[in-house]
Amino acid sequence: MSISPKKLSVSPENINFSFSGAGQNIIEVHGCHETDPELLLFSAKAKSFEIDFFELCDTDDDIPNYCPSNRKLQKDCITPITKADFVCIDGGVDLTIDEMWKENSSGVRLIEAKGDRLVSDPTKRYYVLAGANLKCDHDVNPNNPDLCPNSFDVAASMKVANDTYGKVAISVNKFRVTVMKFNYDLWDDNGVLNDKEYNDLLEYRISKDELKGDNQEIFLVNEISLFGSTPRTAIAETNSNMVAINTKIAPSSTMTHEIGHAKWGFYHPNSQPLYEYDPNNFMYETATGRTMNIRRYHFTKMH
């Protein structure tokens, strides 16, 4: 893409742009003494991608197989446990044990600290076994009702995404909205998704091999853990195509920003490697005061 004249005079004059028809190019047009571009001109083919929305419901359905009054007996409270691999707790339909990764102050899993064993079979179904003392020491967690996300305005988030990405000829489409039941509270059964539990969810999705091509996956959850003492609207692993959104507090611009992390690997402009205060940037860290502008370095990755 070329621009003429190369330099503008102080008097008004027309500006002409020409495009050879090949490659992707972008030009920022700035006003006098303005650091933020007033106009973004680009040449690139139109692109689109689809978004899968999942309303992620945390499930608690562990099945105890021991006598509550005598942990050395099976569920009938008559038959003794005679094998170390006796199944004390079955993971249930969701396949996992509630709080199965939770550790004590010494960093030892609570299940194993109590003398039991955590194992899985080839289908990734988890069990708690009695262990060498032939006793079911680990308590089964209460089976709470499914905890599903708060209501979330998908249409408003889609509009922000199309308004923002549309500045560089990228459109997004809603592929589906699906309820997914999954026991994500594997560290602390508190209805809040933390970073470790997000990574478990990421690993689970990768293991299922159900990602649809270039689709972006958005997981709507009840709540997300604090960052220090600061509430978080979302979690996104860079270049993962997976975002978890806190439906309690996330504004409609959150999804567009987080996809920037998950799909294209963008960082906050005030973080490494940029270290630039740029609130007029859709990747600026906080939603308050953020303007959803695309920058030149975004364009080169997005196209």
3D structure, described in words:
The protein has 303 residues and is an alpha+beta fold. The chain has three domains: 1-43, no CATH class; 45-57 and 147-302, 3-Layer(aba) Sandwich (Collagenase (Catalytic Domain)); 63-129, no CATH class. The chain has helices spanning 110-113, 154-165, 195-208, 254-264, 296-302; strands at residues 2-4, 16-18, 25-30, 37-43, 47-57, 63-64, 66-67, 70-74, 87-90, 117-120, 126-129, 170-181, 216-221, 234-236, 242-246. The chain has a five-stranded mixed sheet with strand order 12-5-13-15-14, with helices on both faces. A four-stranded antiparallel sheet has the order 6-9-11-10, with no helix packed on it. The longest helix has 14 residues, at 195-208. The radius of gyration is 26 Å and the shape is elongated. The relative contact order is 0.15.
Could you give a quick summary of the protein structure above?
The protein is of the alpha+beta class and 303 residues long. The chain folds into three domains: 1-43, no CATH class; 45-57 and 147-302, Collagenase (Catalytic Domain) (3-Layer(aba) Sandwich); 63-129, no CATH class.
